[in-house]
Fold these 2 entries.
Entry 1:
Amino acid sequence: MESFRSNYNKLFTSFFLFSALLLVFMSSMPITNAKVHHHDFVVQATPVKRLCKTHNTITVNGMYPGPTLEVNNGDTLVVKVVNRARYNVTIHWHGVRQMRTAWADGPAFVTQCPIRPGGSYTYRFTIDRQEGTLWWHAHSSWLRATVYGALIIRPRQGDEYPFPKPHRETPLLLGEWWDANPIDVVRQATRTGAAPNISDAYTINGQPGDLYNCSAKDTIVVPIAAGETNLLRVVNSALNQELFFKVANHKLTIVGADASYVKPFTTSVLMLGPGQTTDVLITANQPPARYYIAARAYASAQGAPFDNTTTTAILQYKSAACSTTTSKCVSSKPVIPKMPAFNDTATVTAFTTSFRSPRKAPVPTKIDHNLFFTVGLGLNNCPRGARSRNCQAPNGTRFAASMNNVSFVLPSNFSLLQAHQQGVPGVFTTDFPANPPLRFDYTGNVSRSLWQPAQGTKVYRLKYGETVQLVLQGTSIFTAENHPIHLHGYDFYIIAEGFGNFNAKRDTAKFNLVDPPLRNTASVPVGGWSVIRFVADNPGVWLMHCHLDVHITWGLAMAFLVENGVGKLQTLEPPPADLPKCN
Ligand SMILES: *[C@@H]1O[C@H](CO)[C@@H](O)[C@H](O)[C@H]1NC(C)=O
Ligand SMILES: *[C@@H]1O[C@H](CO)[C@@H](O)[C@H](O)[C@H]1NC(C)=O
Ligand SMILES: *[C@@H]1O[C@H](CO)[C@@H](O)[C@H](O)[C@H]1NC(C)=O
Ligand SMILES: *[C@@H]1O[C@H](CO)[C@@H](O)[C@H](O)[C@H]1NC(C)=O
Ligand SMILES: *[C@@H]1O[C@H](CO)[C@@H](O)[C@H](O)[C@H]1NC(C)=O
Ligand SMILES: *[C@@H]1O[C@H](CO)[C@@H](O)[C@H](O)[C@H]1NC(C)=O
Ligand SMILES: *[C@@H]1O[C@H](CO)[C@@H](O)[C@H](O)[C@H]1NC(C)=O
Ligand SMILES: *[C@@H]1O[C@H](CO)[C@@H](O)[C@H](O)[C@H]1NC(C)=O
Ligand SMILES: *[C@@H]1O[C@H](CO)[C@@H](O)[C@H](O)[C@H]1NC(C)=O
Ligand SMILES: [Cu+2]
């Protein structure tokens, strides 16, 4: 009896334990069959020939652009990055929320020390409620000029797009090519203090297209069959240039941006800042022929030099393809779209203000932190005794850029996240100002005495779950310009934008708190402002910066430090064992 009871108890206990374990196991698994995708990224120099000349280009797995990653919402990515190049490198998964996995975000000296030549690091993260197009790119120095690729996130298995299933899907990565080593270009600029050389070409999926020398035969062809509707996933992966994008004679229906769906709207032209993505449907409803897909600069800074060339691919109707009338089809010139003027800000405004969330959005309304950040350029006076060859910005200065007059300096002995997590003092300070130190007419004629920013490694601290409203105010110091401001680790609602100085009394009335778009990069209008809101629900240290790499090089950045909340689900995971060290 005794033993029967004890056995029965044991049996019962183990059954109970087993069920409990099963429950724990099952509840830690998503409802649908999420997958784990393993990839190896070897960063290496590879000969790449463009514009008649071959360069030893830094690539991933010898590909330019790099491999396209395709996943479903809810899947996990495990990417082992091996650095066989001669430069430090990190990889950033642009727009991925990285909930509690800030260690996998990637910006050098912010969430990790770089992967040094010969080293490796494995990025692990899960896609959490994001669908559409994102991308990945190097986030150290200017390596992202050539180290980038698409990240396509389809709905969970069994789920569908909120629009008719397209016949075909084509990622179109817009890039920027220097007929030089991009690292030499940024090093030269850093040495001289001057603006870096402009690029020599833009590219679509790595190819400049047939308006450039030595490029015609490799022009990207995008096939389409008469009557069908296809999805184009357009990414601006250019380094320093906002771009207009058009397809000759075809309307584009926007269905998503930055891996969030939007209320569909139709346009003939897109504008994307570096970092931004736009998913569009295109229907083959024109006479069968070949049509150019084209991108060229939106250059908002008056008087600043820019690459004014045009990259093209070809939208080719199948019935116009070469199989039937071989020689004819090749010689027929594609129809070329009329692009907006380089400074057509009116078109940009009409486009960016058309975005809406598909339905009523959970925009935070009770605001804990009401922030106002100025964003713009500056000029540093040269220290006494400096050589003139190191002071080649206008009138013997050096270019700078800042947010709230702080020109951001990266640490070099610890990443900000490591310093935060391990409590290492002296790496950063937590006094990033909530407001500019000085109020002035931001978009007017700014007194020369205000042009030189202070330097610092300052973060702004947020408690877990706090809500933020942030006014991003462009300045006209040196020149006004549209800045694509990107926040790591978060999507935010863009609730308003406008020109001139933001005026709370007047402009609060314009806030869209009903269905504003959810983005990870906001194009702050030239000589104007944008207002964004988000909830600090992801602990870590998160860089916010201008996605024109020339501006981040000059210091147009800051970071939010978001504290842990209560319990495991509100706490940053421990650092991976292979996290690179700085020294
Ligand atoms: C930048 O452009 C100048 C002028 O064309 C040229 O002399 C220089 O070599 C270029 N720098 C790099 C790093 O390509
Ligand atoms: C392209 O080739 C033409 C003819 O060979 C030449 O005149 C022109 O300078 C080249 N353009 C560039 C940008 O190299
Ligand atoms: C681009 O700039 C060059 C040099 O400034 C100029 O000669 C050319 O006409 C410009 N091209 C276009 C399309 O504006
Ligand atoms: C745009 O540039 C043209 C010259 O290319 C100039 O005439 C016009 O005033 C500019 N427009 C704006 C809004 O700056
Ligand atoms: C440079 O100096 C000249 C002459 O004093 C002045 O006209 C110009 O505005 C200055 N430029 C800048 C950017 O300070
Ligand atoms: C890290 O570098 C900063 C700036 O160079 C220095 O002030 C600090 O003491 C260093 N911290 C450690 C722990 O070495
Ligand atoms: C800008 O202000 C300065 C004085 O702060 C003045 O000398 C200059 O003429 C003004 N420029 C313009 C274009 O108004
Ligand atoms: C930024 O700070 C520097 C150094 O403290 C100061 O000279 C400058 O006037 C400030 N500029 C602005 C716009 O606050
Ligand atoms: C590479 O990163 C290490 C820290 O991990 C740093 O000490 C070194 O200066 C970096 N090298 C370059 C060329 O930036
Ligand atoms: Cu910028």
Entry 2:
Amino acid sequence: MCYDGRMNMAARVADIRERMRGASVRAGRNPADVRLMAVTKTYSREVVLEAYRAGIRIFGENRVSEAVEKYTDFAEDGELHLIGHLQTNKAKAAAGLFPWVDSVDSLRTAGALAKRLEECGKSADILLELNTSGEDSKSGYRSFDDLRRDLEGILMLGALRLRGLMTVGPLTGDAGEIRAAFRSLKTCMDRLCGMVSASCRPDTLSMGMSGDFEIAIEEGATLIRLGTVLFGKREV
Ligand SMILES: *Cc1c(COP(=O)(O)O)cnc(C)c1O
């Protein structure tokens, strides 16, 4: 949870990877099944490059416009994810830049994204975002039933590959409440896997941030999203 400004980036990444490994082992999981995303919102391209040099290859940004500044002509082997809410009118810009859109929460947005991707002969991996905390300020489907209503339509969009689910845990110090939210997302993931055909095998469960990533790993996360613990407290 603590960011240590005296450590350099490589040491911080090593420290985090060790904590990820510990949580995996505690849960009887293979540490190789959990990937680390660096969330770079508000940080400069310089910082992004530093993280890249420290071995990070998955990056997340909340806003399309901010990502354009930082990730245009980025490393070929870097994998950029959009993790913030996607507005339908930003779908075009997003389609050109993000190979992954992790925050899809409506058929309408998915359709707009797919249309733009098709126009430029591209495709994208997507996650569906589920609001597991019940907090109104958060985006994402309100319930698995809401998500399920859109599922068939989303699966028909040829430019999108459904890879799994994403959530932001509740904003609380109550570890039990956080764990319950992550556990409910894992249950939804299992249900989703049971509903889709063998050709689409969702494999990505994105949950866990700086304050709760170890709990998320214990509950089955395959992708965690870290900002503060890697880069320090954000100014804005
Ligand atoms: C900012 C953000 C993160 C990273 O948060 P930290 O607490 O700084 O690790 C992860 N996921 C989403 C969706 C975010 O907006």
